[in-house]
Amino acid sequence: MMGKTISFDYKMVIVTRKDLKLSPGKLAAQVAHAAVDCALSTKKNKPAWFAKWHNEGGKKAVVKVECEEDFYFLKEKAEKLGIVANLIIDAGHTEIPAGTKTVLGLGPAPDNLIDQITGDLPLL
Length: 124
What we know:
Layout: E1 10-17, H1 24-45, H2 47-55, E2 60-65, H3 69-80, E3 85-89, E4 101-110, H4 111-118
Parallel strand pairs: 1-2
Antiparallel strand pairs: 1-4, 3-4
Helix pairs in contact: 1-2
């Protein structure tokens, strides 16, 4: 008997910067900040999207862009599509200066919308 393939209709995408040389732990913390922030914002502003995403298991993908400037086009495009787009700005207590924009969280949102923004970006 073959296993059933699970298809997801909703996901969250976290966009990281290739030009920031963060330790794995620091990067993981920044991605986690974005995931929590985006989940809470979507739950408040798009509760149906949040519920569907959460009930499907909370799918997340982490992708990468070259530099901070790449965040702005993605953020603008997400906002035009009604998708939560939160930039995480570091407090500067550990590895990088305060005010550094580390990651961009997008969603959760329907796959067909979020793929219009991040579908061509490489996975981390």
